[in-house]
Every structure is written in C-alpha cells, then in structure tokens.
Amino acid sequence: MENCTKDDALQNSIVLFQLIVYIPVLSLGIPLNMIAFWVFCCKLKRWTETRVYMISLVVADSFLLFALPFMIYFTKHDHPMDELCFIIQNIYFTNMPMSILTITLIAIDRYIAIKFPLKAKILRSPLKSASICGFLWITLIIYSYLRQKFLHIKEEFCLHKQSIQLNYSLLLAIIFEYFIPLGIVIFCSVQVIKCLKKKMATSPHETKLVQKAIHIVSVNLCVFIICFSPLYVTLLLRFAVDVAGACTLLSKVKASIQICACLANCNCCLDAFCYYFAAKEFQEFPSLFPICISIRSKMNQSQESTVTHRLSHDIKKV
Fold first, then answer.
1. Which residues pair with 160 in a beta bridge?
2. Whole-angstrom Cα distance, residue 206 to residue 307?
3. CB of 315 within 8 A of CB of 196?
4. Phi and psi at residue 292, in whole multiples of 5°?
5. What is the pLDDT of residues 70-101, one digit of tens each?
6. Where are the domains positioned within the chain?
C-alpha cells in the first residue's frame, strides 16, 4: 500500500472554505430542521406518505448537521482512527445516502400517484412508506458499520485516506448510492412533468396548481443534480486516481472532493424548501382532491379530471 504526502497549505485553505460554507449552513439548518421536525411530528394530524418521507428526510439532515463540525475538525487535524472518528463517519456515511434515497422514494411515490392514479390507493400507504424507510435505515446502518469497520481500518488518520490502494466498495457505493437513484429521479420527474403538461385544466385555479406543481418538480430535480452530482463525479475521479496510482494528483482530487462535499451538505438547508411546500400541501389538501366516485362507470368517465386533481396534490410532495 503506497502512501502519498499531504499538502498542508491546501488543507488549511479547504478548512477555511468549509468554515465559510458550514457556518451559515449550521446557523440556518439547525433551526429549520427543528421547526420541520416539530411540524411534521406534532402539528399535522393526518399521516400520509409525504409526512413519513419528510420525517425521514428531517432525521437524515439533522444527523448530517450534527456531523459537520467534527468533519471540519478532522479535516484540519490529524485525528487518529479512534472511536469518535468511527461514530462520526458512521453517522455521515449513513445519513447522506439516506437523504438521497429518501428523495428518490418521494420521486417514485409521486410518479406512481400521477401515472397510476387508480392503483395508487393499493400501491401507496403511510405504513408501506414507513416500512420501506425503516428497511433502508437498517440496511444503511449495517452497511456503514461494516464499511468503516473493515475497509478503512488500515488508515492512520480520520478522513485522511492517504493511500492509493484500490477500494472497489467505493465504486459500488458511488453507483448504488447516487447514480442509480439519479437515473430514477430523472425518469420519474420527467415523466411527471410530461404527464402534467398533457392535462387540460378546467379552471384557472387548476391551471395555477398544475403550473406550480411543474415548477416544484423542476426545481427539486435541479437542486438534486446540482448538490450531489459534483461530489459523486469527483469520487469517481478519486477511484480513477487509485487505479492509475497517480500520487501526484491525490491532494488536488481530495481537495475537490471536500469542496464538492460542502456543496452536497448544503442540501440540509435546501431541503427546508421541501418542508415548506409539503407543509403547505397539507393546508391546501381539501381543495386539491376531488370527491371520490364509487361507481366504476362514473370513475372511468371522470378519470382525466381525477388525475389532474391528484397530480396537483401529489406533485407538491418534495
């Protein structure tokens, strides 16, 4: 295993950049997540799929915010691979993927509600959403524990991978943690937008709801891509550096990863906009859903109208 030298001046610049980014993120993210957790757990009376996914997202973002000060400290100092490092890395490497996967679940849930409105009542329920989130949490916690326990044990300092030893688990993590979810989010979002644009609204109010829904989906997709893509692309570059054994590029690639990680962690605050639209959705709930038609023949005749109302409601879930 070959170790590469560390560029101390570059690391100090990275720490300064982290402070500039993370101080506002922590200042905004902590109160916003506390308010969001209180609203979704205490204020809302009705349990929906949106509420379940948003609580999961709040929890993931809150743990990420908790880990950020330690990440700054570990970046600046040569902190040994002790129990504290192990805990913080477990928190970080569990909650960022969970945040990504939760956003992916919201996109899938929204796609099902819009593309298959008549089957949505069977395919979707708060209990099913909670079960899926619980399964993902348990899976990621176990994976993160095993990953930190066995794959990075040879490193001397916390968050300072100085070796260029190949780590194929990194490549698998990049693919399954981000690029597959990215493909799903893009597909679901594009299909939802196409479906919305095809719907003919029957009133100015419905037109406004559909336009708002399209805007929300588009913004959510852009934020997801802008926040997370740079980090995972640079992680791919890091894997390429390890494959090539290019020690001279390691310090620059590590710096790029740390800068892109700052951008990705800003998502903790940007998710607050998701909380806002989701909370607003609950307030507008009565006006967004049409009256259910129990007779099958009438349901078939009014399917297009029903879909339009459901779209406007379910789209605003992110």
1. 157
2. 12
3. yes
4. -65, 140
5. 888 887 777 777 888 888 888 988 999 999 99
6. 8-317
